[in-house]
Design goal:
The complex is a heterodimer. The longest helix of chain A has 42 residues. Chain A is built from 22 helices and no strands. Chain B has a six-stranded mixed beta sheet with strand order 6-7-8-3-9-10, sandwiched between helices. In chain B, a hairpin with a 2-residue loop joins strand 1 and strand 2. Classes of the chains: A mainly alpha, B alpha/beta. At the A-B interface, helix 7, helix 8 and helix 11 of A face helix 2, strand 6, helix 4 and helix 5 of B.
Chain lengths: 574, 244
């Protein structure tokens, strides 16, 4: 019954959301011009540029050198930011967890709540928006970019790390305390040691995300691959766009593949190939002990990349110190609401706030909320639909171990869908939306679909993992009684894993809301549009107002999602 | 070694132990027998200060535990080893790192971190010798989650011995293994404790194991001691009734 209500609510919310967003089904078919452009654009995919499309243009460096420089910048900003964010995330994660306490006190609980609220608050502002703030305040400098990326990422890492510490088993820590070890020793030696594989796995996933974010920052002028994509599009060089996209995709796929190898090595360890004998001495046993080349390589590479990111490039923005301070002062002054600044009277602040909220703010926030919600629901529905074709345990000639007569084609289709889903979740939503907008024109569909495609790719993988690892034998019974894979999936696996899938959906919903606050910057009405408009006109007071409005929306979304997920997990059915 | 005088322990109004008087000498080997919820784990927890008495007096090495400063309690704990029911091992660490945890209190934070990251050859030799005693020397550098349940129990025993303890507290250490392996492990623990000259207090479910390896058996029911003494014929009947 609850499942039925949830699905009905999802359908109603989607229909209502699409009505709010004014996204008509007819617009899903692009106009003739849009179709031609799409054809031209996707046709170019087969022939990515190997040189500048305008050889007569005055180019400073060869084409591939330019790609290498942009890719270098993309990686450098991402890695440097992640190194800062990891430090912040570890400190915040420890302070935001209960795991290191010897005994609970009111002071510690207050500290924990403050840190967790601060972590949620900084990550409520999208990195693209942090970039707008830092670039306006500090001028165009690598440090501004790195801080813009590091701050929200530190918030996210702190939240996840503290949850990992709290969830780790306490029995080993209690053992350490029982031998006279201090609370800190017990926490580090037992809790952190246990959580380390999960910390590293999540850290590597966030590194992949930060490369995506770093590329997207190109759309506000940072010299990463995103800027090349934007410039190439504005100049009409479609083949060049594909070269940049392929390079970005290749790096992201490589990082994901590397991350999954490291995850496996961390989770299972490496079994000893040449087991020790009881007669072996310590030296022999030391020589025989297993080592993971993947793990050693990962740690070595991360250290090398971090050192390169901090030491291997230019830091100065070229602007003299005095001018930077003057710029910062001007920016700080501009943040004071216009009406207050003119009259030098803070009593005008509430009316300025209300005017902005009433005239444009609430409507944009309302649309942003529905944009995120509709996209998450469509992503969930899409993932559910494709799951039966993509889950490894079903897309084979022996679904869940039961021999079937046909299945080769299913295996190929399954691999194909998994490949498309990997590409979908590798491409940043912002870049997807940018490309779709050229096809659909200024329609909300472009933003909805970009979000739905990216998140659908993620949900498809998470959901398929749940289905593949589901312990119940009910699906096997249906299959062995002659039921098709679809019947087995919809009658047993989908209902059984439903709560888990809803849990993932809420987790992606909060991300969709966060992403929805910036997609409007591409020129379609939502909070991002107002932010972008204020920035172009140098109305920093309004820009900050809309950024904070978006942050409030994301913050509320985060808390709601946390609450729902907590309830779902607690209900025991998840 | 330990003395309990009219000790009562309550958890939120629920009585876990009531009016316990008990004395355990240095080097003595004692087995606690009783059904689930009888108070065996609570009683074991009193000896190393993991559980504090609601009323009465718990004395360790002649001193009242409730008057110990945190530093003094930590110092006492360094001399008392504990083998919990779930073993308290860190599954993704190697055996040598887990055994080194036994001396966490004595090493301090930085000392333990050094053992984790770069263990000295001397310490590796010491741990190897201990693993030889418990029968798994070849597992010195193996990840704990690659070991069988019985091997993991031996790691936990090695960790307890590495502490050079004056007393070993073992909370149902053989509850999850087959009878033959249980016998081996109890024999290992009792003989190791004897060699170290340490007291051993172990809770068990199996009366025959208790009779075979322990001179003194304490029977508990509903937080009270109902039997204390050698497991002679009369006592055995009481003990079997306790485990039914």
């Amino acid at each position: 019954m609850r499942r039925r209500w949830f699905i009905l609510a999802g359908v109603l919310l989607t229909v209502f959301g699409l009505w709010v967003l004014d996204a008509k089904p007819g617009e899903l078919v692009p106009s003739k011009g849009g179709r031609e452009l799409a054809g031209e654009f996707f046709g170019a995919a087969l022939r990515p540029a190997l040189d500048y499309e305008d050889p007569a243009g005055t180019q400073e460096v060869p084409f591939f050198t330019k790609i290498a420089i942009s890719l270098g910048n993309t990686l450098r900003y991402a890695v440097a930011a992640m190194s800062l964010a990891t430090l912040g995330g570890l400190v915040g994660g420890i302070l935001g967890s209960r795991a290191w306490w010897s005994r609970p006190t009111r002071g510690l609980e207050a500290l924990r709540l403050t840190v967790r609220l601060a972590a949620t608050a900084v990550r409520s502002v999208h990195e693209l928006l942090w970039a707008l703030i830092f670039l306006a305040a500090m001028g165009s400098s690598p440090l501004a970019v790195i801080l813009a990326l590091a701050l929200p990422y530190a918030g996210t890492l702190a939240k996840v790390f503290s949850e990992l510490f709290d969830e780790s088993d306490d029995s080993a820590a209690e053992l350490v305390r029982s031998t006279g070890g201090s609370g800190l020793t017990a926490f580090m030696a037992a809790r952190v040691a246990q959580a380390l594989p999960d910390l590293m796995t999540y850290g590597l996933y966030r590194l992949e995300c930060s490369i995506r974010s770093s590329a997207v920052l190109g759309f506000v002028g940072v010299p990463t691959l995103g800027l090349d994509i934007k410039n190439a599009y504005e100049d009409g060089y479609l083949h060049q766009i594909w070269s940049y996209l392929y390079v970005l995709l290749a790096v992201l796929l490589l990082v994901e593949w590397w991350g999954s190898r490291a995850r496996k090595a961390l989770a299972r360890g490496v079994p000893t190939k040449n087991p020790g004998q009881t007669s072996d001495d310590v030296r022999t046993l030391r020589r025989k002990r297993s080592h993971s080349i993947v793990l050693r390589g990962t740690v070595g590479l991360l250290v090398a990349l971090t050192l390169w990111s901090w030491l291997g490039g230019e830091w100065s923005s070229g602007v003299p110190w005095e001018r930077r301070v003057a710029n910062l002062e001007r920016f700080a002054n501009e943040l004071v609401p216009h009406a207050v600044r003119e009259a030098d009277d803070w009593s005008l602040f509430p009316s300025w706030w209300m005017d902005n909220f009433r005239e444009r703010g609430w409507q944009a926030a309302w649309m942003t909320l529905h944009l995120g919600t509709v996209a998450a629901l469509l992503a969930g529905a899409g993932a559910l639909f494709w799951m039966t074709f993509s889950a490894r345990s079903l897309a084979t000639s022996r679904p869940r171990g039961i021999p079937f007569d046909q299945g080769k084609l299913r295996g190929i289709v399954g691999s194909l869908i998994r490949g498309v889903a990997t590409i979908a979740r590798s491409l940043p939503e912002y870049i997807l939306a940018f490309l779709l907008l050229q096809m659909f024109g200024p329609s909300m569909w472009a933003l909805v679909l970009a979000l739905a495609i990216h998140n659908g790719g993620i949900l498809l993988r998470l959901g398929a993992e749940v289905i593949d690892n589901w312990p119940s034998r009910a699906a096997e019974v249906v299959l062995s009684q002659g039921g098709s894979r679809e019947v087995a999936f919809w009658s047993t696996l989908a209902p059984a894993g439903f709560n888990r899938l809803v849990l993932f959906l809420f987790y992606r919903w909060e991300t969709c809301i966060r992403e929805a606050t910036v997609l409007g910057m591409l020129g379609v009405g939502s909070l991002g549009f107002l932010i972008s408009e204020s920035r172009v006109r140098f109305f920093y007071d309004e820009m900050l107002f809309f950024i904070l409005l978006g942050a409030a929306l994301v913050f509320a979304g985060d808390l709601t999602s946390d609450w729902v997920r907590g309830r779902l997990a607690k209900s025991g059915r998840a | 070694m330990f003395e309990l005088k009219s000790v009562r322990v309550e958890f939120g109004g629920l009585v876990a132990l009531a009016d316990i008087d008990l004395r355990i000498e240095s080097g003595e080997q004692v087995c606690l027998i009783g059904p689930s919820g009888a108070g065996k784990s609570t009683l074991l927890g009193l000896f190393n200060g993991r559980v504090m008495a609601t009323r009465g007096e718990v004395r360790a090495e002649g001193e009242n535990l409730s008057q110990f400063s945190p530093a003094k309690l930590r110092a006492l704990r360094q001399r008392i080893a504990w083998v919990p029911q779930d073993l308290g091992l860190v599954p993704n660490l190697r055996v040598n790192q887990n055994v080194s945890c036994g001396r966490a209190g004595a090493k301090g934070f930085w000392g333990l971190m050094r053992s984790y990251l770069r263990m000295s050859g001397e310490e590796q030799e010491k741990i190897h010798a201990l693993l030889q005693r418990v029968g798994i020397p070849e597992k010195l550098f193996e990840r704990v989650d690659h070991l069988s349940g019985g091997q993991q129990q031996r790691v936990a025993i090695a960790r307890a011995l590495y502490q050079k303890p004056k007393a070993i507290l073992a909370d149902e250490p053989v509850s999850a293994v087959d009878p033959e392996r249980a016998r081996d492990l109890v024999e290992l623990l009792t003989s190791a404790a004897r060699e170290e000259g340490a007291s051993l207090i172990m809770s068990l479910h199996d009366v025959s194991l208790a009779r075979r390896y322990f001179d003194r058996v304490i029977g508990l029911r509903e937080g009270r001691i109902v039997f204390d003494g050698p497991a002679h014929e009369e006592g055995v009947k009481t003990l079997y009734r306790l485990t039914e």
